[in-house]
Fold this protein.
Amino acid sequence: LQDTQLGKKPREGFSSSVGVIAATLGSAVGLGNIWKFPYVTGQNGGAAFILIYLIAALLISAPIMLSELMIGRKTHANAVGAFKTLAKHEPWFLVGVSGVISSFLIMAFYSCVAGWVFSYVFKAVAGTIESTSPQQTFAVFQTLVNGVGEPLFWQLFVLAFTGTIIMAGVSKGIERVTKALMPILFVLLLIVDIRSLTLPGASQGLKFLFQPDFSKISISVILAALGLAFFKLSVGMGTMTTYGSYMGENENLPKTVLTVMLSDTLVSIMAGIAIFPAVYAFGFKPDAGPSLLFITIPTVFSSMPFGRFFMILFFILVAVAATGAILSLLEVPVAYIVEEYKISRRMATLGTIMAIALVGSTATLSTTLLSQMHIFGKNFFDLYDFVTSNILLPLGGIFFAIFVGWRWGFEDMFEVFSNHGRLKNEGLARIYFILVKFFAPVAIALVLLTGLGFIQF
Ligand code: PHE
């Protein structure tokens, strides 16, 4: 209202609670659920890993997600602007700056993998990945990732596609698209699940997913679970601050977080049900690693009746998931540029996707033209993944938690938590506050330092 009186356009936001859930869940659900979650679960022993992941998500990622949403909604500003509003003339805004940098680095490799996925939709339709021989599907994947023009084309395609949606705006772009896509994703996943569960021998895959073997739990398994819980729920880099800034005063934020976290976990487990029974049914190993999605899965689908049909559905669903996540990644720098530099949304988006195309091409070409270039012993793709998941997101997470717990304080926080006292949720707020004030920073710091080799177990 004030903005209108000053003659400025009112700030855009999500128009409904359903839209809030769709957009936020759209950010959480992504390649993390269908590409990372199954292969990390596969490599770390299945059900026991999932259990640890759930604990990490509930006690660490979810409280930080809530912190971000509250900081965003309180200030109705982008990730940098939010801190500038809440802590004027203090260096806290650097947490937002780190978020903007993280979003660029994540998008650099994320848009590359999303490009592979989009190309696989077309390959599935054309039948080029239909083969029951893993050597054959391996060869197709190798040709794609070791190419130059093809992967770059698909990466640009993804950026242009998602950039167009971002240009349409917050409610007309992000909210409208995720509201349409999320149910489609769920239905497609359900169809593929039913197919997978009705394969002979499916029970072995289910055992792998649901029967925990606690002897598999080690410090490295716990580390992997924590890292994934960050990436999965899109926290530690201002995505949720930015989305929170588009939420209205009546949204129940703690409830939104729980809904999104539980639904996101459900999608991950459903992705596991789609993949592991089928993998076992056709005699593959569950720990194939990152290539599980691009080599094992096409072979598995090709070996079953109506395989091509389900393969097309499957890769469409992965593409849908990636789209919602990229929208939220793009929105972080776009909102920042629009608000802090007063540049139009269209120009800000265009500039952002051009910059990502540039940085992203170094990830895409990291195994070919740039394969000689290594930083800290890693190629560009692995470097961006490592620096964000293992350093920037946990670090950002610590600071979001510390900001709420030690700088903002309980009273001011509770104003936002309880929608100015309208929600009677003080007990929950107390638990949350202890988690962000003490538990989360300490736990994350331990993980961070162990991951970087400063602490050894
Ligand atoms: N949560 C997304 C996924 O699981 C990835 C993501 C990370 C999106 C950080 C936004 C910010 O794929």
